[in-house]
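Let us work through a complete example step by step.
Step 1: write down the sequence.
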Amino acid sequence: QVQLVESGGGLVQPGGSLRLSCAASGSISSIYAMGWYRQAPGKQRELVAASISGGRTNYADSVKGRFTISRDNAKSTVYLHMNSLKPEDTAVYFCNVATLGGHAYWGQGTQVTVSS
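Step 2: predict the structure and record it as tokens.
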């Protein structure tokens, strides 16, 4: 089992920045990938960014060049640095962890609202 605690969401003006954090605990040695998804009202949950063991990262096209995912393995924490935020980035952001055993775990979600 892996437990996830997210923090860092909030209200920000267009063009602003936020940093999301997700701390993992439990069976952290089994973690293969850590990432972030988001779900806007009326839309499907979508991948935003992922960090895979070994250093590979993936980003949604809509956030490339604006968002950066980073991972502190010593703290079992993944971060999402979000810059140049747009109103269309407004969503609930969920931390996700995938394990070597094929299990997926989700955080409780944190609201990000981009509005003037």
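Step 3: interpret the result. The radius of gyration is 13 Å.
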